[in-house]
Amino acid sequence: MARFQQTELTLANPVDMGALPRSSGVYIFKGDGQLPIYIGKSVDIRSRVQAHLRAKDEAEMMAQSRRVEFIETAGEIGALLLESHLIKTLNPIYNIRLRRLRKLCSIQLLEQEGAWVPEIVTGQDLGLGRVDGLYGLFSSRHSAQSKLRELADQHNLCQGLLGLEKLSARGCFGLQVRTCLGACVGKEARHDHDQRLMNALIDLKVHAWPFSGAIDLVEENQGWVQRHRLQDWRYLGTWCSKSNQLPIDVQQSFDLDTYKILVKPIMLGTALVKQLGSKTIGVRSTLISNQ
Ligand SMILES: [Zn+2]
């Protein structure tokens, strides 16, 4: 079981505050009952909890909080993964930010007769995290279209060719107001237009999982080791040298928050990663023979 320490949060008693560790981890505010009020994470649990107590705009939340529980982690990535996981499984009333987005949309570039055409794709079958050629993650088709429109404005792209408006023989509306450079009427080479489209989208690229199978992302703190098992950007569990396995629900599908937590440390190579070979990890069990 997880090392799951609990301490009473008594606002008037500074001695109790001293029971909170000055280390990385997740904390849970609870009221009189068992339901969590708020879950947060910090690299310094004690000072973060004290900051909540001082924050004027959080007075209402803190007035309902009687106790704080905490779970220490060996590093910051572990704290972020655990925070995101607990918020989604426990649904605290004051955490709105990390609520599960059920339907994600993305922009996919499709090749049609030698030209690139963006298409807004959605649903479970996207292969999010496994396939290349996806740009941006959006909570709705509408927000994906807004992003395309914004990029079209910034990069002088043709909204007709992007599928955002109907094209007539005289070209798109942008041609009249000179935001389109004329790819829709052959005034600009389609290749040049598509090159700008690619450049506009590159920062939004959704990275495919760069390993052939599962990995352990290892965090270590003064001899205390935690290994977070991951595959296709899904969080499968944590093995901890102090408490063995942290009990978590294995993520069955792509999750935006988990992706955002992991994409930088993994793509920039700043995290310590141990590859586990090409074996696919079953979703029912997080245990794997290491060969
Ligand atoms: Zn145009």
Characterization of the model:
This protein has helices at residues 14-17, 45-54, 59-64, 76-90, 141-154, 173-176, 190-201, 256-267, and strands spanning 5-8, 25-30, 36-42, 67-72, 105-112, 115-122, 134-138, 215-221, 224-231, 234-240, 244-246, 272-275. The model is unreliable at 279-291 (pLDDT under 50). It has three domains: 6-90, GIY-YIG endonuclease, CATH 3.40.1440.10; 105-206, no CATH class; 215-289, no CATH class. It is of the alpha+beta class. Helix 4 (76-90) packs antiparallel against helix 8. The structure holds zinc ion (ZN). Zinc ion is lined by residues 158, 160, 171-172, 174-175, 180, 183-184.
Short description:
The chain is 26% helix and 25% strand.
